[in-house]
Specification:
Four Helix Bundle (Hemerythrin (Met), subunit A); Arc Repressor Mutant, subunit A; DNA-binding; 2 domains; mainly alpha; 3 strands; homodimer
DNA sequence: CTATTGGCTTTTGTAGACAATAGTCTTACA
DNA sequence: TGTAAGACTATTGTCTACAAAAGCCAATAG
């Protein structure tokens, strides 16, 4: 026995963390909104202890903040916060490139190809939401190439914060998508450089890549 | 009223997080050791809910791991983990350098000077423990120059994991300190480059700095 | 009419108890 | 004697309940 097919039985806390995060990222709970424990408990049909553990986790993830004896509330990101997120993200992607390139086996790149395929479909359909999802998928897959669990974890954290920012930017006019096909082209170019195997070129491409979709004010 | 001198009354959870982390980093709880909730509650004189919240936080920090229905235990770091930590730390320090250099006001560098002063004292006294503390203080102060809260937070996380690793390396023979004065010299050199204001030079110095004290096996 | 104080409500922080599960030891059977 | 099934113990997962603190509203005094 013990062939690695052990099923994972999630605890209530795990489920609540995912559910709450989804609700926050979807904008169901707006920026700065207070999260009254009892309300949420009633909503989810659970008791407070697991909810409180879940809130602690989300606090650590940077999605909610807690003031002692004043409870939890959804954070609202300032422009400085967004700049922090982008600069850190850039540093992480650069490390990912340095560790991943040159890529050992070609098969590892298939998730990137698939993401680009999804981008093309989205660009044809004019589906901005799908475009965004594919973009995120590409970058996550790119970081995954580095095979570095801590790097990936840190990256996912920033990703969710960016997603939160997007949810809070109700006025993200087509999330500043100039030309969707330009986005596709940039990612194709990046993948090409990855295939090329020259770390310097990939890093340079990343630096120029400059995907600042979520930034409210330029520079 | 309201002059910003509001005192912070920490919750039990906050205190427990700090205390538990200290105990783990001090090696009181060894690698892989199970953390029985009731024992710790009795030890601290608290009840289980706040302890559980604290354990969730430490899990997020990467100091303990939890297996469903099998409770929490102190993580034990593999060599690969240590390599991950070092590579990520390097990327974060590079970002810090790029953001901080050139330094606007000279006064910001005084923590670095103080840390080097402490290093000199420690080197004279042959106090390896103080040497290590000063080393950590220098790097933390360096990262703080970037004025980037998320960067600093990520860095502190890695720092505590490194500290955990050190606690677990009971056989860290003088933590591989070749010559303490060499360490002092390297940090002096780094500070000089920071003063110089050339980002490239600082980054290059950092890359060469290569402080791999905690690594068990070279490469 | 305004400011301050007192009580009241809402919400969080903590405690204790119960139920369920995993690990372990014993015992019975092959 | 070895193996497997069962019960038992220890520990976690969850819930209900109580106590304490913060914010709000009204009432009263200046």
């Amino acid at each position: 026995m013990g062939e690695g097919d052990r099923i994972a039985i999630p605890s209530v806390v795990d489920v609540v963390v995912d559910e709450l995060r989804a609700l926050i990222l979807a904008g169901t709970f707006g920026p700065g909104e207070r999260l009254i424990e009892e309300r949420i408990c009633e909503r989810f049909g659970i008791s407070r202890p697991p909810l409180r553990e879940a809130l602690r986790v989300l606090q650590r993830e940077g999605l909610v903040s807690s003031r002692p004896r004043r409870g939890y509330s959804v954070i609202s990101l300032s422009d400085d916060d967004v700049r922090e997120i982008y600069s850190l993200r850039g540093a992480l992607e650069r490390l990912a490139a340095e560790l991943a390139v040159p890529v050992a086996d070609e098969n590892a790149l298939s998730p990137l190809e698939e993401a680009i395929g999804a981008m093309r479909t989205a660009a044809s359909d004019g589906d901005d939401s799908a475009m965004l999802a594919a973009n995120v998928a590409f970058h996550s897959a790119f970081v995954a190439l580095a095979d570095h669990s801590r790097l990936q974890q840190s990256y996912e954290l920033l990703r969710s914060q960016l997603q939160l920012c997007m949810a809070q930017n109700l006025r993200f006019r087509q999330h500043r998508t100039g030309d969707p096909w330009d986005v596709v082209r940039r990612h194709e170019s990046l993948l090409e450089r990855v295939r090329g195997g020259d770390v310097q070129e990939v890093v340079a491409e990343l630096a120029e890549h400059g995907d600042r979709s979520f930034l409210r004010q330029e520079q």
